[in-house]
Design a protein that fits this description.
heterotrimer; B: 345 residues; alpha/beta; eight-stranded mixed beta sheet; three-stranded parallel beta sheet; C: 260 residues; 11 helices; 79% helix
Chain lengths: 274, 345, 260
């Protein structure tokens, strides 16, 4: 068995070169600032963050990412269950069917959503054709959340689907035989067994949705600023890499620390991923 | 299936080799805005000179800068905007261009030489230019729109698109207040911020490129826009009008420059010379729809473009300004813009 | 399948595919903007005359395939080990895996660019693929882990006890069981790769463009419907392949039904 440990070597080496080393570059940047054209060590970038304005941006990003993740979970789980039923036997086709829309460029898809959801867009035109009241769908937080859910939905469905379809049918039948109703079977058998997939889904949706910036701008009408937009701006327009790196480090530290904190909890550890 | 992978792998290896060997023969590496050239002109240049054009694109001046200044990718020609050229000259990132080697340089109008960003005209050759103004929909607005202040009129609540760019939005607010758009005065900038936060209540959205399609569909009644974009919109919706506000506005020039680390200086010069040739310049401007800095090229444009008063407005009595190198003010701008964005509606 | 399930499935599919439909419809719009003018094939014709979109398309596929395959291999190998780790070691390696997920694209893009500049690696296809593998691999690991955790380790041990070599036992016992996870990982990696703009932008040069770079860079003047056209072609090709293989598979199933 010990041989299997060497299998991680390529990944470990890769991570050191392409993740750890760049991360160190970033940390160095985050502790520097430019004064009179000279680069000096300082904590300024971190101090700068503790401003109600920026803290609020971070909190809003967390709130939107959290809502996105929860809605994704609640909508994706039933879909994964439906897809894992016997009627759908060809697993590859299901996989492709869910992921195929994502092969169209995300900018193009977001543009298409705008055409659909605009005040004078296709959906509102249909509504008014039937004499129904029209609605403003775009230009607010709701539109951003919708865009993020759409974009990350497959990342929630696929791992859950993989986990559920692995569950041994005989376990479910046994549960029924022992007199458990459908809900109890779900709560006591199906859900716990699918937990690894659920946790993977939660991670793959929550983490990237914290840092999106394109959807925010396009569907939100540029009226809301999130941490992803702020970091992007520091690296391009403002050219303040120190502050951009510091923001990124703060974000990473919060998440990684809370994971380490929460993974002390044994019940979550059963997911095994954290 | 296995065969497919093999083919793909071979293809990738081959194209990598081709990519490397490219540098041995004659090439010129051009870095331009996306979709900002009639690519046929590149092919014509290749046929005429035998120099291969390696063409890459960028979406904004700032992203171009981040890549050119910090990566070690070497280009022979860049086509950024005025203020970015000024910044790069100040940082000594550009090499001088010997205009005597560019025979077609005489076709560039004098108004586009010795501009503020390159006062002695040593580093840049103008490629295109344009103004910024207001596009409005005359079927939705019956009043005369002629000043920036109209974008603050409560009548047009939820009918206004601003541009999702701190520079352009702050420019509008400063101009509305009667200040220079290059002001470094903190009081003036604070007032501009107040104006923008107040305006946010009336704004439907801060838009980028997608705003054009929305204006054509009548999603909003007015929008801050570049002349070249205005032309595109007006061609599709005749109700749209473009005006230069009477408080004065901003105009830009995109120009060809040669970075210091260029590897094919002579080819770059040939390329610039080719692009200045009136027929070629006209072909490019006809494709992209912006204004050409060359009267000779303008003469060769299709009639409706040549005589367009959007692309070539009567500038008598309009005060035009150009952005200066923003390096010292970007922090302030970023802070103002974050506050505007974070303000509740 | 009962009605509620069917309705739910349809609603999700409609939401997933409605923007794709819009995208396809607008590939036949004569205007460059998002307002409908009249029906045309001109963008398809222009597409075939546009070498830069064609080359961007092939680079996109090359980078997508190569980075997805390599990251799947690296990720699979890593996941097989991670599953055996316990305690702090596992937590550290998982934290390492989360770093690319938690970094905004711009941070990955710029920090890798600085890395290649420092190491003096010329920008081009190689740097592009290296960067894509970097942000893809964590997704592969995360996709494979749940299936590995559900695996019954006793079966593998039993196979070894019965004299199977580790490689043989892996091929016959573990791989078939975790294959859906591996495939999902590979597909997600490919998806992320072909969609990425920011990281690609900062880590390419020498004329190596991807479709995403083309699309985002067009933003100043409006994305050309040629992009809609090429997206439509890709979409229709995949759908055709799927339908054909599906029909074949169901025919085969029917035939088998006759025999058994």
């Amino acid at each position: 068995m010990s041989k299997r440990k060497y299998l991680i070597t390529p990944y470990a080496l890769w991570s050191i070169i392409f993740v750890i080393v760049p991360l160190f570059l970033l940390i160095i940047y985050s502790f520097t600032t430019t004064k009179d054209g000279k680069t000096v060590l300082s904590l300024e970038s971190y101090m700068k963050f503790f401003d109600p304005l920026y803290v609020e941006v971070l909190l809003r990003s967390f709130r939107l990412a959290f809502i996105t993740t929860i809605v994704c979970l609640v909508t994706a789980y039933p879909l994964a269950m439906i897809l894992s039923s016997k009627e759908f036997s060809n697993k590859t086709i299901i996989l492709i069917l869910i992921i195929l829309p994502m092969w169209m460029n995300s900018l193009m898809r977001t543009y298409a959503w705008m055409i659909l959801l605009e005040n004078k867009g296709i959906i509102n035109n249909i509504l008014s054709f039937f004499g129904l009241p029209t609605k403003q769908f775009l230009y607010d937080e709701g539109a951003i959340i919708f865009g993020m859910i759409y974009n990350f939905f497959p990342f929630m469905v696929l791992p859950i689907y993989n986990s559920i379809s692995k569950i041994d049918i005989s376990l479910i039948e046994a549960s029924h035989d022992l007199g458990a109703n459908k809900f109890t079977t779900f709560r006591k058998v199906i859900f716990p067994l699918s937990l690894p997939g659920v946790i993977t889904g939660l991670i793959m949706v929550f983490m990237p949705s914290l840092t999106t910036f394109m959807i925010t701008r396009l569907l939100g009408g540029g009226q809301v600023i999130l941490i992803g937009n702020m970091i992007e701006e520091q690296f391009t327009r403002t050219n303040n890499w120190g502050f951009g790196s510091a923001l990124s480090m703060i974000l990473m530290a919060i998440i990684l620390m809370s994971i380490i904190f929460f993974s002390k909890n044994e019940s979550l550890d059963s997911g095994g991923l954290i | 299936m296995k065969k497919t992978w093999k083919i793909i792998l071979t293809m990738s290896v081959v194209s990598t080799l081709v990519g490397c060997s490219g540098s041995s023969s004659e090439v010129v590496k051009v870095y331009n805005w996306g979709d900002y050239i009639d690519e046929n002109t590149n092919r014509m240049f290749e046929e005429e000179t035998g120099i291969k054009v390696i063409y890459e694109v960028f979406p904004t001046n700032e992203e171009m800068y981040a890549k050119v200044a910090h990566g070690n990718a070497a280009y022979d020609i860049l086509i950024p905007s005025d203020y970015m050229i000024e910044k790069m000259i100040n940082e000594e990132r550009l090499s001088k261009i010997d205009v005597t080697q560019i025979s077609n340089y005489i076709f560039i109008d004098d108004e586009f030489k010795n501009l503020v960003y390159d006062p002695n005209n040593e580093y840049s050759v103008a490629y295109s230019w344009g103004t910024m103004g207001i596009v409005y929909n005359s079927s939705l607005i019956s009043d005369q729109i002629d000043e920036w202040a109209d974008m603050w009129d409560p009548k047009y609540e939820n009918q206004i698109f601003m541009y999702d760019s701190e520079r352009d939005s702050i420019m509008v607010a400063l101009k509305k207040l009667g200040y220079s758009m290059n002001t470094r005065d903190e009081k003036e900038l604070a007032l501009a911020k107040k104006e923008l936060i107040e305006q946010k209540k009336l704004i439907l959205a801060y838009v980028g490129d997608e705003g054009k399609g929305k204006m054509i569909n009548g999603e909003a009644a007015m929008m801050l826009a570049w002349a070249g974009d205005a032309e595109v919109m007006m061609a599709e919706n005749p109700d749209l009008k473009y005006i230069l506000p009477k408080e004065g506005t901003n105009y830009f020039v995109d120009a060809m420059v040669i970075p210091k680390n260029c590897e094919n200086y002579d080819n770059a010069i040939k390329y610039i010379d080719f692009m200045c040739r009136p027929e070629i310049a006209a072909q490019n401007m006809a494709y992209i729809g912006y204004s050409t800095p060359s009267s000779a090229a303008r003469e060769l444009l299709p009639k409706e473009m040549k005589n367009s008063d959007v692309a070539y407005p009567d500038l008598t009595g309009v005060s035009l300004e150009m952005f200066n190198d923003p390096s010292d003010i970007v922090e302030t701008y970023s802070r103002i813009w974050t506050e505007v964005k974070a303000a509740s509606k | 399948m009962n009605k509620i399930k069917k309705i739910y499935l349809w609603i999700i599919m409609i939401i997933l595919y409605s923007p794709i439909l819009v995208l396809i419809v607008f590939s036949f719009n004569s205007s460059k903007s998002t307002s409908w003018q009249e029906f045309t094939f001109k963008w398809y014709i222009q597409l075939f005359e546009n070498p830069s979109i064609q080359s961007a398309f092939s680079y996109t596929l090359i980078v997508g395939f190569v980075s997805a395959i390599i990251s799947t291999i690296i990720g699979l190998m890593a996941a097989l080990t991670i599953i055996k780790l316990r305690g702090i070691k596992r937590r550290l390696i998982m934290a390492l895996t989360y770093i690319p997920l938690l970094s905004p694209d711009i941070v990955i893009g710029i920090s890798l660019m600085m890395l290649y500049s420092t190491l003096n690696i010329p920008f081009g296809l190689i740097t592009l693929i290296l960067s894509h593998i970097t942000f893809n691999t964590p997704y592969v690991i995360l996709s494979i882990m749940p299936r590995l955790m559900q695996l019954n380790p006793n079966v593998y041990e039993a196979a070894l006890d019965l004299g199977a070599t580790p490689v043989y036992a892996f091929k016959k016992i573990i791989l078939p069981d975790i294959l859906p996870g591996v495939l999902t990982g590979a597909f997600i990696a490919f998806t992320l790769s072909i969609d990425d703009f920011v990281v690609s932008f900062f880590n390419t040069a020498s004329g190596v463009n991807t479709l995403s770079i083309q699309i985002y860079s067009m933003a100043r003047r409006g994305v050309s419907p040629e992009i809609n056209a090429i997206s439509t072609l890709i979409f229709l090709t995949i759908v055709t392949i799927l339908t054909v293989t599906n029909i074949r598979a169901s025919r085969k199933a029917k035939l088998e039904g006759y025999f058994y």
